[in-house]
TrEMBL record:
The keyword Nucleotide-binding applies. Its EC number is 2.7.1.2. SUPFAM superfamilies: Actin-like ATPase domain. ATP binds at residues 18-23. Keywords: ATP-binding, Cytoplasm, Glycolysis, Kinase, Nucleotide-binding, Transferase. This is Glucokinase. It is found in: Cytoplasm.
């Protein structure tokens, strides 16, 4: 894709945007390039056999207008005409969607690519800043999302264009650095012979970290879910409190690593289902201190801001921003764009 000569034809409106997770599917409608994002529904993936069924029963009725385009975010790579979801039974088949829903075109993107697409337009109450720093305009941003797993993506600014770059950053190594860490790390259950960031910094990883804390301190009891850990911490359980403090510190370290790797002067942004549940631990200092403790670059890290994303549907908003003005983003649609035989030809970039 040549950025200098890149041309992006506008999508056919109305555009249905969808954020498809392992548990829930969320839908919104964008009626035109100047229209707001109209949230039209959320449904459990387990309640429907296919995405098409979910759209028919949940989205089309609420939308009021029949969409001509669908832009969908899914967890995982898009590798062909049949796209299985990692954590749900659905297989997304864009050509079948075009036929069954009378769509002109379907675009399928990565879920954290959608999160990244939202970043240039988040402001005000959408964000809660943690610590110091000011985002520089037209500068690289990074999003990190502890949820079921640990999602990650960058939004690079180059050649006067925003370029979303999804990746598997949640699987980087995570080792101990402090005496407290070393006392805990030997008790952490390894996955595939290693300890990756997602193995601890996620909804599935949090109870693994809590079990290690309990084992190191020879404390009784156990946790089977992140919800149990956060509820116990709210009740003052010392093991759960320590777990969340360690979680925040480790998340700060990983966020700081990515900020340095990409020189993310536009800021690092925290999303995901776990983030709002541990917000008190993120803003009290452990997260930001770990983020900045990157000798010899502490001074640089102090200038890079970190934020909790408070927007209720950042992935949907990112897809909606792209639907309204695709010309503002360099998104390659090769292998990720399907069209009806009777639809106007559109460049795939």
């Amino acid at each position: 894709m040549n950025l200098r000569n890149r041309q992006q034809t506008a999508f056919a409106f109305p555009v249905l945007v969808a954020d498809i997770g392992g548990t829930n599917a969320r839908f919104a409608l964008v009626k035109g390039p100047g229209s707001p994002t109209q949230i039209i529904g959320t449904t459990a993936t387990a309640d429907h056999d296919t995405l098409t069924d979910a759209i028919k029963s949940c989205a089309l009725t609420a939308a009021g207008e029949k969409p001509k385009t669908a832009i969908i975010a899914v967890a995982g790579p898009v590798t062909g005409d049949r796209i299985p979801l990692t954590n749900a039974a659905w297989v997304i088949e864009p050509n079948a969607m075009i036929s069954d829903l009378a769509l002109e075109e379907v675009v399928v993107l990565n879920d954290f690519e959608a999160q990244a697409l939202a970043l240039p337009n988040l402001e005000g109450e959408d964000l809660q800043q943690i610590g110091s720093g000011t985002p520089l305009p037209a500068s690289t941003k990074f999003v990190l999302g502890p949820g079921t797993g640990l999602g990650a993506a960058a939004m690079i600014y180059a050649a006067d264009t925003w370029i979303p770059v999804p990746g598997e950053g949640g699987h980087v190594e995570l080792g101990p650095v402090s005496d407290e860490d070393f006392a805990i790390w030997d008790h952490i259950e390894k996955v595939g012979g290693r300890i990756g960031a997602e193995h601890l910094l996620s909804g599935t990883g949090m109870p693994r970290l809590a079990r290690a804390v309990r084992s190191a301190e020879q404390a009784d009891g156990t946790y089977t879910s992140a919800a149990e850990v956060t509820q116990a911490a709210d009740a003052g359980d010392p093991v759960a409190v320590k777990t969340l403090r360690l979680f925040a510190k480790a998340l700060g370290r990983v966020a700081g690593d990515f900020a340095l790797s990409l020189l993310a002067r536009g800021g690092v942004y925290l999303t995901g289902g776990v983030t709002p549940r541990i917000a008190d631990y993120l803003v009290t200092g452990a997260f930001r201190s770990s983020f900045e403790t990157k000798a010899p670059h502490e001074a640089l890290l102090r200038t890079i801001p970190t934020f909790i994303v408070r927007h209720p549907n950042p992935a949907l908003e990112g897809l909606a921003c792209y639907a309204r003005h695709p010309e503002n983003f360099a998104v390659s649609l090769t292998g990720r764009h399907w069209q009806s035989a009777i639809a106007p030809h559109r460049r795939t970039g």
